[in-house]
Amino acid sequence: MTRKLLRRAASASFAAAAALALTVVGGAVTAGTSGAAPAAADGRAAPPPESADTVRMVGKGDVPRRAWTFAPGERFRYSARYGRIKAGHTTLEVEAVDTLGGTPVYRIARELEAGVSFCSIDNRDVSWVAPRPLRTLRFEQHKRECPSYELDRRYEFDHGESGSTWTMLNMFPADGGGSGAAGDNGSGAEWRLETVKEDVATARNAIDDVAFLYLARMVPLEVGRTYRFERYFQEDGNPVVIEVLRRETVRVPAGKFETVVLRPVIPTSGAFGEDSEAEVYITDDERRIPVQIKASLKIGSVNMYLREYDLGRQDALLEDGG
User: Fold this and answer.
1) Alpha-carbon gap, residue 263 to 241, rounded angstroms
2) Which helix (H) or strand (E) holds 11?
3) 221-238: per-residue pLDDT in tens?
4) DSSP 29
5) DSSP-based three-state secondary structure for 79
6) In contact, 95 and 111? CB cutoff 8 Å
7) Regarding beta strands 226-229 and 54-57, do their DSSP bridges make them parallel or antiparallel, or are they unpaired?
């Protein structure tokens, strides 16, 4: 294999691993089970079987047991490692309160900036969510990945009495200029939109990748319980399963924390299939701060550690949870 092909293979592996890390921080984790759960007939990793300790949360207008307490200005910043390589950082933030179609929403964003000598990634995903009941009204993806991959895409959601649908649109700069950096997008830029798919039926009160971690932070997370969600907006990504494994004390750059350890599972194929594992460590208190993520893949390991955090302004929360 030529040096050029080797570099391309390494770039692809790094991009895939970094994409997993980004997804993990968003909650809809692309990881298989660690145990005996077999692969589904279509090759996707099968979710763990239901038991007496399984709690189903299917989204038919239900409100999570914990209220939305994640204030505007709440911001978590993580350092990322791909194996032993310092690979970059990612942030998760409640950026602001907005209004979409007359509905008050929170704008939450997840960003990843990562790179080594052969590859760089600059991704930003933005979600506009209404908290009661929790549902996505808009979701945008802005990706810049090595060597030359770019994507700007929007999903608009409609939640009616008869069910929920989404429409997918490609986004182009309104002035016809260059697309710019991913970090410039999703918070006010002018776009020309091109409809790709329209009125696709989805789960009632569907939510996107970024919103899933906030949903996980709103459920009780009792050790030994398994939570199954039929809420992901892409039908083939359901059910999303969160297994609550244990309690554990961890130390990360941001400090020492008492945590509950989660194993999230989402049906998948390819690099993140049944041989992959991931664990997410969330503080065992009212704050529910994600402090550490560990993911083991066929192509290597990705670990993320909380470096700094800000809990935001509680007086800026929407009244009555929205």
Assistant:
1) 8
2) helix 3-26
3) 999 999 998 889 998 888
4) -
5) strand
6) no
7) parallel
- Beta bridge partners, 144, equal 122, 150
Average pLDDT by stretches of 10, the chain with 322 residues: 49 51 45 37 53 55 70 95 81 96 95 77 93 93 86 95 92 67 52 92 92 90 92 87 94 98 72 62 95 80 92 89 53
Extract the tokens encoding 219.
Answer: 């459920």
Angle ∠(309,311,316) on CA atoms, nearest 5: 145
- Encode pLDDT of 42-70 as tens digits: 555 555 555 555 565 555 445 456 789 99
The candidate with the shortest Cα–Cα distance to 16, out of 263, 239, 266, 298, is: 298
Q: Which two tokens stand for residue 145?
A: 């990945």
Whether 196 and 26 have beta carbons less than 8 Å apart is answered as no
Structure tokens at 196: 């790709």
Amino acid (1-letter code) at residue 288: R
Q: Determine the Cα angle at 265 with ends 263 and 270, to 5°.
A: 125
Residue 96 CA, chain-centre distance (Å), reads: 18
- Domain edges within the chain: 3-321
Question: Which pTM was predicted?
Answer: 0.80
